[in-house]
Write a structure and sequence with these properties.
499 residues; mainly beta; four-stranded mixed sheet; globular
Length: 499
């Protein structure tokens, strides 16, 4: 028979009030613990913090990180996380910490709603609630130089997020004539060269101006139109600005006004002093990371390292014109004139190690006439938008330059005309960061005079100009409509999309 233990009555009598309090307290704690466990299973699953809160996201924003108020297992996550309108990406993480890495560029001027939702059949998933805040993207906006009497030579910010109610903001004063400009990556400032036409001997100086935009914090205290002169030297004119995509490296051309032989490219890394490079060229481009400079020189194109330790300068003989660096890769797009007087676009890999054998160049496309400018399609790296020159026979029998926009496919080495631009040889273009539209201008020009305030890069005086928007389809590879009609946006020239 199993023995049973019975405490003696004398032992029970020993238990006093304190022991009874301890027992009651333990019982209360046990009840509270049960209630907490029950409540945890009934609490709504929600996001308590995420990385893009209070910001407007752009194409440079790739990873959304967020923290939940309770753990979520991986098997549940795919059916829980939703974005509307759809924005493709990959969800990863564990427990309370999750990440959504975008595989598609966000559309500008769009609000995305992130929700946590599950079907009623998924009983193991806690009750769900939606995010309180939407994910907003950058506004669809551009900057250009005005032409009308009130806007002549002034920088203008035009917001076209709502096409029915575009918003225009003049950023620079009347006493400055802007020659060229570059936009900083956060859109908060614009770098530009300008001169005061009222001066007896005006000089081209370098300035910045605030736009009133701050994507990271949406700070309403950042006011537009604050001008700052960043180089104090009236003895030099400043031309041909090139700003790295991250905004931390500036390269430009400086020319002594009293001695034209004293002309050189200068570099200005962020946080350091500007320095001369000992190079002369008015045809150069800067890599997105600000580490390499490609410039046209006699007999070829040079690749010049702007950061110590990258190696020596590399001279690429036989190339005529640098067009673009491929983002995130050591590849540069160059123009080359062949012996048969045909032109080639070449994508050339390069390496910082000057002793390493260079990779063979890739022929992008061949053409009868030169390509003036190219920009990569942001969504498809094998596609380029190019501004190409052609010649047409006029009624007098004389050939005349006629540029047109074209689409170049690297994989098929094909060039397809997109839009002819007759009678306007000086054209500039800008592809939207999300790849959904393209800006270009058409300017009427005459020979320059001493009183000419507005000039094209080729030195012609501008008398009139129009800025046009060309909408582009979601997928270039599937083909284009037979006819794409541009839409006139503004009177001006040199348009650039805000980042």
């Amino acid at each position: 028979m199993t023995a049973r233990f019975h405490p003696p009555k004398a032992m029970l009598a020993v238990l006093g009030p304190f022991d009874r309090i301890v027992g009651v307290t333990a019982l209360v704690l046990a009840v509270v613990l049960v209630l907490l466990l029950w409540r945890t299973n009934s609490v709504e699953l929600r996001v308590v913090k995420y990385s893009w809160q209070g910001q407007q996201i752009g194409t440079q924003d790739r990873v959304l990180s967020f923290h939940l108020n309770q753990p979520l297992v991986s098997e549940q996550s795919a059916s829980v996380f939703k974005i509307e309108p759809p924005l493709a990406g990959q969800l990863s993480g564990q427990g309370r910490h999750w990440f959504y890495t975008l595989s598609e560029l966000p559309r500008y001027g769009t609000s995305y709603q992130v929700t946590l939702e599950a079907s009623s059949a998924q009983a193991k998933i806690p009750q769900l609630s939606s995010l309180v805040t939407l994910l907003n993207t950058h506004n669809r906006a551009l900057v250009y130089i005005g032409i009308s009497p009130e806007e002549q030579g002034r920088l203008i910010l035009l917001d076209i997020t709502n096409p029915q109610k575009p918003q225009k903001l003049i950023l620079t004063p009347k006493d400055l004539r802007v020659r060229e400009f570059q936009i900083y990556p956060q859109g908060d400032r614009i770098l530009f060269t300008a001169y005061d036409p009222n001066q007896r001997r005006p000089s081209l100086q370098v300035f910045t101006v605030t736009t009133g935009i701050h994507y990271q914090t949406q700070d309403a205290s950042v006011l537009p139109g604050k001008i700052e002169r960043i180089l104090e030297d009236d003895n030099y004119d400043n031309f041909s600005l090139a700003l790295a995509r991250h905004g931390k490296m500036l390269v430009w051309q400086r020319t002594n006004r009293d001695n034209i032989a004293d002309s050189s490219l200068w570099a200005w890394p962020l946080g350091e002093s500007p320095r001369p490079l000992g190079l002369r060229s008015d045809d150069f481009i800067l890599s997105a990371d600000g580490q390499w400079l490609a410039l046209a020189q006699e007999g070829g194109v040079s690749l010049f390292p702007l950061v110590q330790g990258l190696g020596d300068t590399q001279f690429l003989a036989g190339y005529s014109h640098p067009l673009a660096f491929l983002n995130a890769k050591n590849e540069v797009l160059l123009s080359q004139l062949q012996a048969d007087n045909r032109y080639r676009l070449m994508l050339l890999p390069f390496t910082a190690n000057s002793k390493a054998a260079p990779a063979p160049p890739h022929i992008v496309v061949q053409a009868k006439y030169p390509v003036l400018d190219c920009q990569f399609e942001p969504r498809q790296s094998n596609i380029l938008y190019c501004l190409k020159q052609d010649f047409v026979q006029r009624d007098n029998g004389q050939p005349q330059e006629e540029p047109f926009l074209a689409i170049v496919n690297q994989q098929t080495q094909s060039l397809r005309p997109l839009l002819a631009l007759p009678n306007y040889p000086d054209v500039s273009m800008s592809v939207a960061p999300d790849g959904l539209a393209l800006l270009f201008d058409q300017v009427a020009t005459v020979a320059p005079s001493r009183n000419s305030d507005l000039l094209t890069p080729s030195g012609q005086a501008i008398t009139d100009g129009r800025i046009w928007l060309l909408a582009l389809p979601d997928n270039i590879s599937t083909g284009l409509p037979n006819e794409i009609l541009p839409q006139e946006l503004a009177v001006g020239f040199a348009p650039q999309w805000m980042p």
